[in-house]
Write a structure and sequence with these properties.
Nucleotidyltransferase, domain 5, five-stranded mixed beta sheet
């Protein structure tokens, strides 16, 4: 079995993948910690032959995790942001400072679509662009839905946006304080993504496929105005591309990869952008 770990600052996700069939056997999430309990927090390591790790947590968390795993597992692969990988050139002035989850998402998107806008809707919303030739432009970081709500300090933090809500409902004026807060932060998030996507495509003269991942991707996707796909395993896809361990991965197939969305024409993007500037 292959254990994939996506370690965040507060929440860590894992999945167990069959090394022979490439099927996902199980998955889960736990609060990030320095001391993992195999069999409780993560799967029993007796069945694991290799581990792949993406981590944006504190260095101590990663070091303790790697030390634990190396005592029990034969192969431990840790992803890092690099100046170049898999045909993509890192756009950061200091490439190692780009969050590795963003880097893996950009790599996965490029392997799938040959150029993309990769959006991760987690505690922060990150938006990264990779051009068809493999040049990573850099990106944008915004507060996520939960962080925006907490910053208002209005006592509504525990009333989350219903992920099954329709966009029309979430974009309407709220008639209670909790609705006004939820609808306001939702409007801010989807408006920012829509505008940033249009502005960058206009500047670069290319319409890029748009792909979303992260815990809030499903609800955010409902408010986007351009064709897009939701790929929950996009970061894992980057791990698979960087460290291919199964026959399917070595053939370039990434688990759960969606059909690449066909973007609208650049002319339509520019027309929409021009109209919005007149309002």
């Amino acid at each position: 079995m292959i254990l994939d770990l996506d370690i965040g600052n507060t929440l860590s996700k894992w999945r167990l993948k069959d090394a022979d069939s490439s099927e996902i056997r199980s998955r889960g999430a736990v609060w990030t910690r320095e001391e993992w309990r195999p069999g409780a927090d993560i799967p029993d390591l007796d069945v694991v032959e290799a581990v792949r790790i993406s981590s944006v947590a504190r260095r101590a968390v990663l070091e303790e995790t790697v030390a634990l795993l190396q005592r029990r597992v034969g192969h431990v692969h840790v992803a890092h942001s690099t100046p170049e990988a898999l045909g993509v050139t890192n756009g950061y002035e200091e490439p190692e400072r780009l969050g590795v989850d963003r880097w893996l998402g950009a790599l996965a998107g490029y392997q799938l679509a040959g150029g993309c806008c990769a959006v991760d809707c987690g505690s922060a919303i990150t938006i990264d662009f990779v051009l068809p030739g493999g040049r990573h432009l850099g990106g944008y970081i915004l507060p996520g839905l939960r962080l925006m709500k907490e910053s208002l300090k209005l006592g509504t933090r525990n009333v989350a946006i219903d992920p099954d809500s329709e966009a029309e409902e979430l974009l309407a004026p709220g008639r209670r304080t909790v609705e006004a807060v939820n609808h306001g932060i939702y409007m801010a998030a989807v408006s920012a993504i829509n505008r940033i996507y249009a502005e960058v495509c206009d500047m670069e003269g290319v319409a890029l496929p748009l792909m979303l991942t992260g815990g809030d991707a499903r609800v955010v996707s409902r408010g986007l105005q351009v064709p897009h796909a939701v790929w929950p395993d996009m970061v894992y896809g980057g791990l698979e591309a960087c460290f291919p361990l199964t026959a399917a991965e070595r053939a370039g197939r990434m688990s759960g990869a969606p059909r690449v969305p066909s973007p609208v024409s650049l002319e339509k993007i520019r027309a929409g952008l021009a109209f919005s500037m007149l309002l």
